[in-house]
Amino acid sequence: MDATLADRLADVDARIVEAARAAHRDPAEITRIVVTKFHPAALVAELHALGVRHVGENRQQELSAKREELAHLPGLTWHFIGQAQTNKARAVRAAADVVHSVDRPRIADALDAAGGDDVLDVLLQVNLTEDPGRGGVAPAEVEALATHVHALPGLRTRGVMAVAPLDEDPARAFERLRAASDVLRTLDPAAGWISAGMTNDFPEAIAMGATHLRIGSAITGPRPVRG
C-alpha cells in the first residue's frame, strides 16, 4: 500500500472537514469524488482499499476500461465528469453511475435513448463564463434544460455541476452556480446536488453549498506523462 497516497487522502479529507465546519455545514453531507484521469486502474484499487467509493473519470474510454477491470471491487460509484458526446452516449451510459455533464438536449436525449436497466443519475452542467464555447448551459437556460431532461424517463436530474473560471474568484463563480441550483430546485426540490470544487478551489465550493467535490492531483499526485 502506498503510504503517501493514504497521507494525501487523509490530508484532503481533513481539509474538507475544516472547510465544512467553517461554513457551518455537516461534513457528512459532502461526497468526495477522487478523479483518477490518466492513472492506472491499480491506483483506483489502492484508493478502494483506503475506503474510497466515489471515483471520477473524464474520458469514456478510460471509464469503460477501468470499470471493467475493477468490476470485482464492491461498492464503487463511477462518475463521468468529462464532456459527453452523443456518439459515445451508449458507452457512457453502460459505464457510468452518474453523469455530471449534461449541457444540451441532444446529449440528454442520447443518454436516455441508450437505455439501461436503471434510471441514470445526471447533473446539468452550467457554464460560469461568458465563453459560449465552454462546456455547460448558460445559467439563464437551466430551467429550459431541466424541463427537457425531466420529461425523459431514463434520466433522473440530481443537481448542477460547474467548473470555476480560472480568471475569477471561485467563490463568486460558485455563487452563480448556487443560484442555478436554486432555480433547478424550484422545478425539482429533490435535485439538490451541487458538483463543484476541485483541488485548488474546493474550500470555496463548500462555502457555497457544494455537495460533491471532484478532487484529483491533491490526492492522486501528478498525472502520469502520456506518451
Spatial ordering of strands, largest sheet? 7-6-5-4-3-2-1-8
Number of helices: 9
- Class of the domain at 82-196, according to the CATH hierarchy? Alpha Beta
CATH architecture assignment name of the domain at 82-196: Alpha-Beta Barrel
Overall form: globular
Helix content: 40-55%
Order of helices and strands: HEHEHEHEHEHEHEHEH
Give start-end ranges of low-pLDDT stretches. Answer: none
How would you sum up the major sheet?
8 strands, parallel
Radius of gyration: 17 Å
Q: What is the topology?
A:
Elements: H1 3-22, E1 31-35, H2 41-49, E2 54-57, H3 60-69, E3 77-80, H4 89-95, E4 98-102, H5 105-113, E5 120-125, H6 142-150, E6 155-161, H7 170-187, E7 193-195, H8 202-207, E8 212-215, H9 217-220
Parallel strand pairs: 1-2, 1-8, 2-3, 3-4, 4-5, 5-6, 6-7
Helix pairs in contact: 3-4, 4-5, 6-7
Structure description:
By secondary structure, the protein is of the alpha/beta class. It has a domain at 82-196: Alpha-Beta Barrel (TIM Barrel), CATH 3.20.20.10. The chain is built from nine helices and eight strands. It has helices at residues 3-22, 41-49, 60-69, 89-95, 105-113, 142-150, 170-187, 202-207, 217-220; strands at residues 31-35, 54-57, 77-80, 98-102, 120-125, 155-161, 193-195, 212-215. It has an eight-stranded parallel beta sheet. Strand 2 (54-57), helix 3 and strand 3 form a beta-alpha-beta unit. Helix 3 (60-69) packs parallel to helix 4, helix 4 packs across helix 5 and helix 6 (142-150) crosses helix 7 (170-187). It is globular. The mean pLDDT is 95.
